[in-house]
Amino acid sequence: MRSSPGTTIGVIGAGAWGTALAKVAAERGLAVRLWAHESDVVQAIGSKGENTVFLPGIRLPEEIRPTGRFSDFAGVDLAILAAPAQFLGHVVKGLAPTLAPRTPLIVAAKGIETATGRLMSEVVADVLPDAPIAILSGPSFAREVAERLPTALTIASADRALAERIATTLGSPRLRLYIGTDIIGAQVGGAAKNVLAIACGIATGRRLGENARAALITRGMAEMTRLVAALGGAPETLLGLSGIGDVVLTCMSATSRNFAVGIALGEGRTLADALAGKRSVAEGVASAAAIVARANMAGVAMPIAEAIDAILNRGAAVDATIADVLARPLGREEVSARRA
Fold it and tell me: Where in the sequence numbering do the catalytic residues fall?
């Protein structure tokens, strides 16, 4: 990856998050190519200098070149993968023939693939096994990043030198990038916190109180820690930005799409009603079943995630599911990869 000036960044996915990251890169003086699946997004950015669909009201730098063609990514020095998690595999397959060998990839999507239970790094590696991969995760509402409000994120890669180069290329005093090497922990934290946010939203919508939300966050973190350990990651990663940092933001703010979906469910609305009219993705809805399946394969107990999966995907009643979770046998407050 060449250093700026002269570096060209490709951003795949022009939702709010991808658009915000494209803006960050452009403000660092980099040439940016931003791919969108939606033709109206490409047209709006090209003609108005604004993503009126997913990030309205944010003026975008002229250095951002919108496109709907993967062929325009030939020669990019670095690609940021910000497409929704459940579409990432399809997008990477379309992009693969265009990229030069060993083009570094930053995975900015948070989720687990529903069809296979794969982490996003595994999805990418199956298509581009030689590509260096880094994970970008942490507490970050896209609009605040785009507005240059202070934000701190984790950039994790098994190749520490790559993570350091990315931090130097994209980081700034307003976007602090902390370097890590645990890509498993960073990904589990980023995916599982979305499911936990739905649980916290349900508790809020059901008016169960702040004590209940605190308990959900604490026990949800224990579930996430067990899964990270079982998958070979470092549990202490979840003490950082891609773990507790992201959990605090996502589970305590109505700006969080996943938290808002949970509130709607807790208030008695159906999932279809909660999602109606929204083009932005609440990743926890798609990831819940995949996280539970991956945990089951690893022999890890995740009762909160299992409860959300049951509500979202198997028609379980909210009140009955809450009663089942509360009736679970008492256990010791320990973190273990073993099923309790």
Answer: 193
